[in-house]
Amino acid sequence: MEPVMAAAAADPSILVESLRRGLPGERIVVDPDVLAALSRDDAEWAPAGKAAAAVRARSEAEVQHVVRTCADLGTPLVPRGAGTGLSGGANAVGGCVILDLSQMSRLLEIDPENLLCTVQAGAVNNDVKAAVAEYGLWYPPDPASAPWSTIGGNVATNAGGLCCLKYGVTRDYVLGLRAVAGGPVAYGDAVRLGRRTTKGVAGLDLVGLFVGSEGTLGVVTEVTLRLRPAPAGTPRTVVAAFADLVASGVAVAAITRLGLTPAVLELLDRACLEAVEDWKHLGIEADAAALLLARVDTPGDSGAAEAAAVAATMTDAGAIWVEQSTDDAEAEALFDARRLAYPALERLGPVLTEDVCVPRSAVPQMLAQINAIAAEHGVRVATIAHAGDGNLHPLLITPPGDDAARQAAQAAFEQFLDAAIALGGTVTGEHGVGILKRDGMRRELDPGSLAIQSAIRAALDPRGIFNPGKG
Ligand SMILES: Cc1cc2nc3c(=O)[nH]c(=O)nc-3n(C[C@H](O)[C@H](O)[C@H](O)COP(=O)(O)OP(=O)(O)OC[C@H]3O[C@@H](n4cnc5c(N)ncnc54)[C@H](O)[C@@H]3O)c2cc1C
Prior knowledge:
The chain has 471 residues and is α+β, with helices and mostly antiparallel strands. It has helices at 12-20, 32-38, 60-73, 125-133, 151-157, 164-167, 206-210, 245-257, 270-280, 300-316, 328-346, 363-377, 403-422, 438-444, 447-460; strands spanning 28-29, 53-56, 77-80, 97-100, 107-111, 116-120, 137-138, 174-180, 190-194, 219-226, 228-229, 236-242, 264-269, 290-296, 321-325, 351-353, 356-357, 380-386, 391-397. Helix 8 (245-257) runs antiparallel to helix 12 and helix 9 packs across helix 11.
């Protein structure tokens, strides 16, 4: 899906001069080292072009000036939050302006009576959680990158996380947003989309269209988020070890089939556990092929019964051992291991991150396919998964500088995508298409769906400036 009209690179000196006309000089970055650092996200394998400049915006008016300038000069514009993306979505396009939103991080409003808050796009997920917690409220979406990733980035990727199984993804919490757009409005106009009410069907769901649009429809500057009351009671953690990766998938499918809804159901395979243990020495024994970590947050006796049912299901699926705990510190060590798995593996070599999502009944087959494809290509793979969502991240790790291993990993990556599609799944559950999954998306989506998406992009961005070549 190519942008209708690919934007061309403008003369860098004219571009910077035009940016200076509406921005304090210190907002504009041209230093090559700083620019290079702002030109990539966390997807080590995704290519990045050379940006002409970056702008560290501090207000919506500054974003508007950048959008107008890029539209006038036909310069590609790449929005950026914290750059924790795993698909190359925030990577520079040749001659582009990187628009860094991370300094627009103010919390504008917390409305406890209506269970909502409004934040600037650069607010960090965990900072929003902490601020609303002071009012006894909770913002559930919890990507493992929550200490760093921004709400704008979460919205643009429709980020998932650990507790989606019970509480849903970012889309379920976005009531409204402000964006600086183009197309039907003049480039650089700010538009308000959505609402503050819990219900509302006036017009098409444009908020839904922007959520997950990966910066291709405009720049999100402000987001109004739905909140929940903070969960009551102490959650129970159920941990199970499996001698066989596929058996852990059988447990996941059975938990779904029985209608059990733990808040969290995560998987870590042995390679992940070993990498975390070697790095952080958390005292986790990596003696199993896979661990399943479940968290049940239903309070009282029902919660105890639910945790017992989850544990029994894991035992029936062939777990070597299963333990239940309400000890927060013990549970947190395990969840820390889950959150640290990705950076722990990055220490071993460049990581190519897969993000397939399959129907939950197909988790055992997908895990079997991961093993088989990895063996066929002789590649090193470590799997973490939001298993309860059917969202699996087999991570391909290659020794630095080993081209043959890289090619083998690339071939396995594409085969994982095809296996997921064949099982009725999708090539990306939460990280977005970015650059890495463009081919896979073309294989997955119906041609009519691709045509509609191209038409929407053409209508909303006829000059093709918003993050061209992504999504
Ligand atoms: C250790 C680690 C763990 C992770 N765990 C998870 C996880 O559990 N679940 C999950 O879903 N993801 C996860 N991710 C991926 C990543 O954190 C998410 O995709 C996150 O939403 C990206 O946010 P960001 O602020 O870093 O955005 P960036 O990486 O800066 O940008 C991501 C995309 O959003 C666009 N964008 C950013 N801000 C805006 C804006 N204001 N307006 C318009 N477009 C914008 C960019 O152009 C790009 O296409 C993880 C990443 C890491 C490194």
